[in-house]
Amino acid sequence: MVEVHIPKRGIHGRLEPSRLDEDGLPEDLRELRDLEALEKKAIEHLERSNTELYNFLTEEEDKDFREAIAENLQVLERKHARLEKILEKILELTPNQGPVELMPAPKPAPKPAPAKALPEGLDL
Length: 124
Fold this sequence. Notes:
- By secondary structure, this protein is mainly α.
- Helices cover 50% and strands 8% of the residues.
- Strand 1 and strand 2 form a beta hairpin.
């Protein structure tokens, strides 16, 4: 814990490290959602990178690119496993809500009926 006091600015507070559970994940839902977003972004980046590397390999064989793809696949396995743990933890903390991904998408609002023309003589 660190206490912060900046009297001239009227700032006083305490910084505490995140409390982690035995699984190494925070207990705070907001922090878990942030971790979820980071993992999803990392997975997206690695998948895009592998696609680009694979496209280069279809044109010309390259040992380094092939190694990079293999390494990325290993990292992707770990990232997917971590994301699964994060989502399970979110479900544990919000048993009645569930993650947004598992909830059905809301139905779109119905389109308004087209405006009918006013009878002759009633228009403005």
